[in-house]
Amino acid sequence: MNEHNIGRIDDIPVGEGRAYVVNGTQVAVYRLRDGSLRALDAICPHKGGPLADGLTDANVVVCPLHGYTYDLSSGAELSASGQPVCTHQAHVDDDGSIRIALR
């Protein structure tokens, strides 16, 4: 799997997400309160909302435009349309670099 270095873990505050462009794909990367990372496509398929700006908890992100809820592990839409977003693999290297593998 082809991985991309997108930045440093310190660039994402705990409990928040940030948007990155990875090989032409907009990806939202979330640093959860337990320190783990999750990555989803950054655009809500409902109306194009910026998912990186959504509220998160340990399991979901809520689109800031219309409240659609997405599972951070599977990308499944849990509240209304049923249209999922793609998930991506994300991890932190020993030097603090974030690495993303697109699916």
Task: Considering the chains and any ligands shown, give keywords for the structure.
103 residues, mainly beta, 6-stranded antiparallel sheet, 3-stranded antiparallel sheet, 9 strands, 43% strand
Description:
The protein has 103 residues and is mainly β. It contains no helices and nine strands. The strands form two sheets. Strands 1-9-8-4-3-2 form a six-stranded antiparallel beta sheet, with no helix packed on it. Strand 5 and strand 6 (60-62) form a beta hairpin. The protein is globular, with a radius of gyration of 13 Å.
Topology:
Elements (H helix, E strand, L loop, with lengths): L2 E6 L7 E7 L2 E7 L5 E5 L13 E2 L3 E3 L6 E3 L15 E6 L4 E5 L2
Antiparallel strand pairs: 1-9, 2-3, 3-4, 4-8, 5-6, 6-7, 8-9
